[in-house]
Amino acid sequence: MKCSEPPTTPVPVRYRAGVVGESRRVVHPAVLEWDGAIYLARCGEPLPVSQVEVEPHGMPCMKCAALLSLGVAPAHGRRGVRMVGGVIEAA
Ligand SMILES: [Zn+2]
Asked: What is the distance in A from the centroid of ligand 1 to the CA of 84?
């Protein structure tokens, strides 16, 4: 991971092996939010930093790709997230 980039630069992240099913291990462009506790994907999915890896070569998230091609503004900063019983979810 490059430290020279500003924190708002999206990075390609996906869940680590074993955290979720293989079908959900797609790569989302995401930015760090919540003081570096989570990556928030363009499609709005919150990804806890401890459960993801930076990986540019996986299968891309179709939702993120569709939003990108439609020119829709990223979800970054538009959706809140909350912690429920130790699980971070979109509010
Ligand atoms: Zn996505």
From this structure: 21
Cα of 15 vs centre of ligand 1, distance in Å, is: 11
pTM of the full predicted structure? 0.70
Instruction: Output the CA 64–ligand 1 centroid distance in Å.
Output: 4
Interval 4-31: pLDDT, tens: 545 578 899 999 999 999 989 999 999 9
Q: How many CB atoms lie within 10 A of CB 64?
A: 23
Domain ranges of the chain: 11-90
For residue 68, name the pLDDT band (cuts at 50, 70, 90).
confident
Taking the centre of ligand 1 as the mean of its atom positions, its distance from the CA of residue 37, in whole angstroms, is 18
Decide if 88 contacts 46 (C-beta within 8 A).
yes
**For 89, phi and psi rounded to 5 degrees?**
-140, 160
